[in-house]
Predict the structure.
Amino acid sequence: MCRSKRARLLFWAVHLMTPVLLALYCAGHPVAVPGEPGDREGEPPRTPTRASALADAPRGDYFPNIILRTHDNQPLRFYDDLLRGKVVLINFFYVTCGDVCPLMTANLVQVQAALGERLGREVFMYSITLDPQTDTAEVLKQYAAGYGVKPGWAFLTGQDAEIQRLRRILGLYDRDPRIDADKTQHTGLLIYGNEATGRWGAVPALLAPERIVRAVLRVIGPQPAVLTP
Amino acid sequence: MLTRRAVLKCGLVAAGAALLPSKATRSYADIRLPSLQLTPFVDKLPFPPDLTPVSSLDPAPNPAVHQYFNFEDTVLGLPPLSPLLYEVDQTEALHQFHRDLPGTLIWGYNGSLPGPTFKVYQVTQATYREVQARPVLVRFHNHLPQDHTGFGVPVTTIHFHGGHQEPYSDGFPGALADIASCKGQLERFFAPFPPGGAFEPGAFFDCYFPLRDPGFSFGQHEVNDRPATLWYHDHLLDFTGPNVYKGLAGFFLVFDELDTGDETGTRFPGTNMRLPSDAFDVPLVIQDKAFDAQGRLLFDTFEHDGFLGNQFVVNGTIQPFFEVKRRKYRFRLLNGSNARVYQLFLSQAPNSKTVFHFDQIATEGGLLSAPIRGIDNFRLHPAERVEIVVDFADPQFKGVTAVYLENRLQQDNGRGPDGLGAGTPLLQFRLLDERPEDPSRVPDTLRRHNTISPAELAGVTRRTFEFERSNGAWAINGQFVDLCAPVAQIPVNATERWRLVNKSGGWVHPVHIHLSFLHVLSRNGQVPPLNERDGNALKDTIYLGPNDEVEIAFHFRDFTGPYVFHCHNIEHEDMAMMAVFNVHAV
């Protein structure tokens, strides 16, 4: 009981701290934005530059802000709480999916180990169930405990229709409705990305763990990730 | 409090709509590409600039990292030849895709989209004598923005697609750090030569191309195994798709004593085929892209099937026009798209029943044994090249003033194309009245390819590679790419016979194999069509349609080290549909 409370606190702490750290980082690294309207009064905006191409993108309008529940039974908003400003790894699974999902979860356990202290600080992992009716928060809690899941990796459940929508928005779907109805077809890919910089990729969830970690480090930028062996 | 403006100032927000895949290509209800109505044929067909060599590089290239850098060809009697030096800078730049679009930020070699064109000669006795042909060394600088946000990763590695070159200069897709992670395997598999790799902003990397006929290292120069139209493009592991889409691709044209670049016949008398040259030798790279109203490039990073755009760009311009005289032209067509397949016609008007005839003279592996005369359409899969000669002086064009290069193949997702249907004109040819003297020819024999002999195929190693879909991911023989674990160990100068099988249901995969051109022995148990058949053509990209099975044979000559083969639907490639083979010394 006490342990899980601490885990919950940790989970919240790391999630809430990221924007603060980002703000601190920004404060220390002011970057001029040439051509941004209002930089200098009376000057017309210049022809497109990097900076003006950065304009007006409310990022949240793509990702749904649906409520998901963690394996610690905490309700969190997908965009605001789980995604915004973070580097994330997202996969879909369900507890009763037979041979495939356990392999992938076991692979992600190795990713968790390889991420080490980055997990929950620089990188967050989300495993979202495709069978939310069966996979309640309590079921997920047991499942997570069985794999030794650490803070920074959340197993998530929610409303079935909303999760289906989320899966499609992340590009996990098949145009053939019969194949699309087979949940195992959506368990093979791992989506990874940096929401703040818009750098996203996808790899097989069964790719070698060190390869997955290297792919994720590649999106931690904008500064190139320090690749320490 | 972190305000949006603060984030902007911090440079952490990605490139607006370019970041957001929100209006992108997925064809389910709530995702649509913006449909900009841009007037076609208002911009001239542009040509990327030709590259010229530089006199020196500082620091000087390091011969120790290259294979055959100071190679003395005692068989041909050629001394060690110092390479021609080129310098290319990868930068962000503004590019105008259409008269009515504002400038678009792209990534380009020397800021150009497509990149500048290399025009070089294969190193042979004849070319050494007549034009002092030499190997080529290109120094690529990476000045892409390190703080880049949005799609694309400013770390690069450059592949010379179709080239016969060492792994170090072949654009091996990993970063050096990735390869270093191979630990002991690195020495075991890849020694003694460094495998090359990706490099970061601020760094540079030298690629070396001996431009020698395959087999040169053991005195069996295969003089008919020469390229004509190669291309160079980014090959960064996991991110080739967005990086190529942002503009990192260009032409690399190779000439020799037959295909001379001189239609007058002045140079290389006796062997010169006098194909249309100079202003009448026109490379055309076709790409599909998407833009928002501000002209920003859109890319859907969550389109795992393969990205399709809805604007058609030829040599970096949306639906341009090209004024032609009434004579022969050589067109070198390259499909530089991520996932789209084209079936191209020359029509009198979009969707007109009147289509024109032309000759196909080459494919990826250079000139065919004999031209395929009088065709009226051809398919072009991602990364493939098809070269045609169109004679606008031919009677079929009498009274015709406009001709359209038109794609009639329907495709609405990355899975693969459907059938023929309503066409999209990509390029308008405006036929001038001018009928100049035309010294060019299309001989009945081009570059003669011998079929691989049964004796050579007897007893060679056979391998089968199945291209599969596995729980929504793509795999080759059930494996995902591991740069440290070659799927085949091959002794140098061996020949092998591979079966490429597409078992991924309705998906299609254009499969590209590095290092050598491929002899296509059979397609679905049948003799392959002329445009890929062994004895008439050589290929470097093999299209696998649903359930296709293609048999190829090829040599692993001269160079040792790791090479990749992969699906050239670049989104599939980026999601690990790639494998490594290692050529080792014997």
